[in-house]
Amino acid sequence: MIIASRFWTNLFSARKARAITIFPFIFLYKKEDKQDKVLINHERIHLAQALELLVIPFYMLYLSEFLIRFLLSFDFNKAYYSISFEKEAFANEENLSYLKSRKLWRFWKYI
Predict the structure, then answer these.
(1) C-alpha separations of 110 from 35, 41, 83 in Å
(2) How far is the CA of 100 from the CAs of 18, 21, 56, 86, 96, in angstroms?
(3) 44 close to 25: Cβ distance less than 8 angstroms
(4) Beta partners for 19?
(5) pLDDT at residue 10 in the model
(6) pLDDT-based confidence at residue 11 (cuts at 50, 70, 90)
(7) pLDDT surpassing 80 at residue 14
(8) End-to-end CA distance of the chain
(9) 24 vs 15, which has greater pLDDT?
(10) What DSSP designation does 29 have?
């Protein structure tokens, strides 16, 4: 389910994201972003990652990986773009058929 909500995107991303996925929802900063197929595909990749890790462990790993990378660099953007889940999503967001052929636990390739 896709929902336009500035509240949730601001709350969970420190006002830095256009979209955020909180399983099973995709929250968009702007209603117009519903038409952005690349952005939606990026977020759907996160839904697949969360589902294969049974949701709660996905968020625990995501946050842990972010915190470790942030403590190593003290750079929010560097830490964010270094998260394996984000690396997979960014690398494949323009491939709109990626999820049809995505292999299980594919994010491990990006660690």
Answers:
(1) 28, 18, 8
(2) 24, 19, 24, 18, 9
(3) no
(4) 28
(5) 86
(6) confident
(7) no
(8) 29
(9) 24
(10) S
pLDDT, tens digit, for every residue of 39-91? 999 999 999 999 999 999 999 999 999 999 999 999 999 999 999 999 999 99
Q: What contacts 76, CB < 8 A, 6 or more positions away? A: 14, 16, 70
Sign of CA dihedral 100, 101, 104, 110: negative
Single-letter residue type at 51? L
CB count, 10 Å around CB of 10?
15
Beta bridge partners of 22: 25
Answer yes or no: are the C-beta atoms of 108 and 88 closer than 8 Å: no
